[in-house]
């Protein structure tokens, strides 16, 4: 029942047994109530009338201001204030009404409940004030007995709580929609896990400490994908240790295929169409409301959809990679001497492109997508050699003019093969970049290369990078027509042809990479 001031007006139906004068746990967050009045006695009487009152096991915290200006500063400092008990006449005849406008318009605070209290009703007629100002109640000070004040405060807190729940729901849904859209762009399960753990805190508008586990099927152990806060150390584990105290709680979610709501923690169960299951364990710093739980149900469905999208994307990426590797293997199948060549080209192409980005060059072209693709795409640079006759491809020594012309055809053949395949994949892909590289990696920066005689930045950037990498690796390793060169000699060749055969900015980035790859020019490259 209610422990409140004696009831004198028969309006106790407005208050239920969630409002009480009994004690409450010290850690309960109080409801902030701001009293704005220039009469100290009004503050004293109000404080006495509201002493020991609690609503939903939360006490009141009274803030005091003695002018409209002081009230404005307190509200700006405490935007979570639930209720303002506001006098009309203070430093001016309409100071209270001016403060109402400033609260709604300057602070843009439409949640706080405002109850006007006036000792001079004729100064601010009730009907005009109710219609002209965004207030929630209007009371003459003479009619506010202790009981009526109690009823007004509790009714205002209940309205504030309802509006706050709606606002949190709106913000939570917005966070879910925005955050889950970002999850679709993640490149790995680890990134996905980090995004999920961050998003749950944003949805609930609280910081969270948690762990996200994945189970691929009913027989597999939970894999730890990500962890935050005091659980961060668990992120280093591939699988959750059965001896860990969290293990039975997470397993319960998997076993029952349902979220587990406990006073001390939450375990969200998230199934997916891909037959994977997630369990998200976290410890919210406050008890979850029904609104919170409803948001989490929406959250789970969005996370499931985001994972299915990511899984599909990763499968598509793997399929593309498998196609690229198969094409590269086909080209290298006939030439065992260059079997490791494409792997080195991939490594150095990737590193050189990233070094170019670090140096701030070609920022429009060195997009995250380009950087993800160019290394793998580079292994297709010589795929056109599949059509080169053996007597030309494996001839020791230099080619004559006719053989040289046949050899040069591999650039156009490779580009043609890859361009046709790339048409089946929308946007930039391994195949589209591979086609640019296959066609352009023998072009020269000064326009003296082949097959198109392109010059400068008219040559695709991916091809300009692979041009440097491919030549250097060919110089460093034995070929049917030459012995390997010492590293210092090969790098000198690259330097000497900077600006003529090679893009000078690419050369700069490549030499930076090589300096990091080798501790000295006489040493073999690091694995």
UniProtKB/TrEMBL annotation:
Query: A Gene Ontology molecular-function term?
Result: phosphoric diester hydrolase activity
* SUPFAM superfamilies the UniProt entry points to: CheY-like (SSF52172), HD-domain/PDEase-like (SSF109604)
| Residues covered by the Response regulatory domain | 32-156
Could you confirm whether the keyword Amino-acid biosynthesis appears in this record?
Answer: no
Q: Which residues form the HD-GYP domain?
A: 316-526
Q: Which GO annotations describe the biological process of this protein? A: phosphorelay signal transduction system
Tell me which residues bear 4-aspartylphosphate: 87
Matches recorded under InterPro entries: CheY-like_superfamily (IPR011006), Cyclic_di-GMP/3'3'-cGAMP_PDE (IPR052020), DUF3369 (IPR021800), HD/PDEase_dom (IPR003607), HD_GYP_dom (IPR037522), Sig_transdc_resp-reg_receiver (IPR001789)
* PROSITE patterns associated with the record: HD_GYP, RESPONSE_REGULATORY
Q: Which Pfam families match?
A: DUF3369, HD_5, Response_reg
Recite the UniProt keywords alphabetically.
Phosphoprotein
- Establish whether keyword Phosphoprotein is in the entry: yes
Query: What is the protein's name according to its record?
Result: DUF3369 domain-containing protein
Natural source organism: Pseudomonas xionganensis
């Amino acid at each position: 029942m209610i422990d409140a001031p004696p009831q004198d007006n028969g309006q106790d139906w407005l208050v239920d047994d969630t409002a009480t004068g009994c004690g409450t746990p010290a850690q309960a967050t109080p409801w902030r109530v701001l009293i704005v009045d220039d009469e100290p006695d009004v503050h004293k009487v109000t404080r006495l009338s509201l002493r020991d009152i609690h609503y939903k096991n939360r006490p009141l915290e009274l803030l005091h201001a003695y002018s409209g200006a002081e009230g404005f500063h307190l509200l700006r400092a405490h935007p979570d204030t639930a209720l303002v008990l506001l006098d009309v006449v203070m430093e001016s005849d309409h100071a209270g009404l001016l403060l109402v406008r400033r609260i709604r318009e300057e602070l843009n605070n439409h949640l706080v409940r405002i109850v006007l209290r006036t000792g001079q009703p004729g100064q601010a007629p009730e009907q005009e004030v109710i219609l002209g100002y965004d207030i929630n109640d209007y009371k003459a000070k003479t009619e506010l007995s202790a009981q009526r004040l109690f009823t007004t405060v509790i009714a205002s807190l209940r309205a504030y709580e309802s509006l706050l729940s709606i606002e949190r729901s709106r913000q939570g849904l917005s966070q879910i929609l925005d955050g889950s859209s970002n999850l679709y762009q993640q490149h790995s399960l680890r990134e996905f896990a980090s995004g999920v753990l961050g998003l749950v805190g944003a949805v609930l508008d609280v910081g969270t400490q948690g762990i996200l586990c994945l189970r691929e099927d009913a027989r597999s152990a939970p894999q730890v994908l990500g962890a935050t806060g005091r659980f961060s150390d668990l992120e280093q584990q591939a699988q959750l240790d059965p001896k860990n105290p969290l293990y039975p709680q997470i397993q319960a979610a998997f076993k029952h295929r349902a979220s587990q709501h406990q006073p001390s923690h939450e375990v969200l169960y998230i199934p997916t169409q891909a037959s994977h299951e997630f369990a998200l364990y976290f410890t919210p710093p406050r008890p979850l409301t029904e609104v919170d739980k409803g948001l989490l149900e929406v959250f789970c469905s969005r996370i499931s959809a985001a994972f299915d999208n990511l899984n599909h994307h990763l499968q598509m990426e793997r399929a593309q990679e498998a196609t690229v590797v198969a094409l590269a293997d086909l080209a290298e199948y006939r030439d065992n001497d260059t079997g490791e060549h494409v792997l080195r080209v991939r490594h150095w192409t990737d590193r050189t492109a990233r070094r170019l980005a670090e140096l701030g060059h070609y920022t429009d072209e060195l997009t995250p997508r380009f950087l993800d693709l160019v290394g793998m795409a580079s292994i297709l640079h010589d795929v056109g050699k599949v059509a080169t006759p053996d007597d030309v491809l494996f001839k020791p020594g230099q080619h004559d003019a006719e053989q040289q012309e046949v050899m040069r055809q591999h650039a156009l053949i490779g580009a043609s093969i890859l361009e046709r395949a790339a048409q089946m994949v929308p946007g930039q892909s391994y195949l589209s970049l591979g086609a640019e590289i296959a066609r352009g990696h023998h072009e020269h920066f000064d326009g003296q290369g082949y097959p198109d005689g392109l010059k400068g930045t008219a040559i695709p950037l991916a091809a300009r990078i692979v041009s440097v990498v491919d030549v250097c690796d060919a110089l460093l390793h034995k070929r049917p027509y030459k012995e390997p060169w010492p590293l210092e000699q090969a790098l000198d060749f690259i330097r000497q042809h900077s600006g003529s055969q090679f893009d000078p900015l690419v050369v700069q980035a490549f030499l930076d990479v090589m300096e990091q790859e080798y501790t000295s020019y006489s040493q073999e490259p690091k694995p």
